[in-house]
Amino acid sequence: MKTFITEYRVIYGDCDPFDVVYYGRYFDLFERGRTEMFRDLGLPYREIADQGIYTPVIEAGCTYIQSARYDDLLLIETRIGQIGRARIRFDYSIYRKNPHTLLAEGFTVHAFVNNQRKILRVPPEVIHVVKGLTE
Amino acid sequence: MKTFITEYRVIYGDCDPFDVVYYGRYFDLFERGRTEMFRDLGLPYREIADQGIYTPVIEAGCTYIQSARYDDLLLIETRIGQIGRARIRFDYSIYRKNPHTLLAEGFTVHAFVNNQRKILRVPPEVIHVVKGLTE
Amino acid sequence: MKTFITEYRVIYGDCDPFDVVYYGRYFDLFERGRTEMFRDLGLPYREIADQGIYTPVIEAGCTYIQSARYDDLLLIETRIGQIGRARIRFDYSIYRKNPHTLLAEGFTVHAFVNNQRKILRVPPEVIHVVKGLTE
Amino acid sequence: MKTFITEYRVIYGDCDPFDVVYYGRYFDLFERGRTEMFRDLGLPYREIADQGIYTPVIEAGCTYIQSARYDDLLLIETRIGQIGRARIRFDYSIYRKNPHTLLAEGFTVHAFVNNQRKILRVPPEVIHVVKGLTE
Question: C58–D67: do the CB atoms touch at under 8 Å?
Answer without folding.
Answer: no
